[in-house]
Amino acid sequence: xxxxxxxxxxxxxxxxxxxxxxxxxxxxxxxxxxxxxxxxxxxxxxxxxxxxxxxxxxxxxxxxxxxxxxxxxxxxxxxxxxxxxxxxxxxxxxxxxxxxx
Length: 101
Hints:
Elements: E1 2-8, H1 17-27, E2 37-42, E3 47-52, H2 61-65, E4 71-75, H3 76-84, E5 90-98
Antiparallel strand pairs: 1-4, 1-5, 2-3
């Protein structure tokens, strides 16, 4: 099954907790530079966009610790169907995992 990290841009506050917990999970230290997820922020438009790096293993740490529940891991099919009827601020990120069903 293909997995996608779904980000709700209307809910993301740009707190970057996801970056910290990802780095702790991966390398055992709080260091956003070693995280698979990065939050790109545009202060003028107040838009925060979480994006994944190709080394993400979809462990779910970022989803578990997101204080606003802006992140979720869903199947590719679910991401596509949710995007069809979604408001502008909800979209799947780029990284897709091909896991066995």
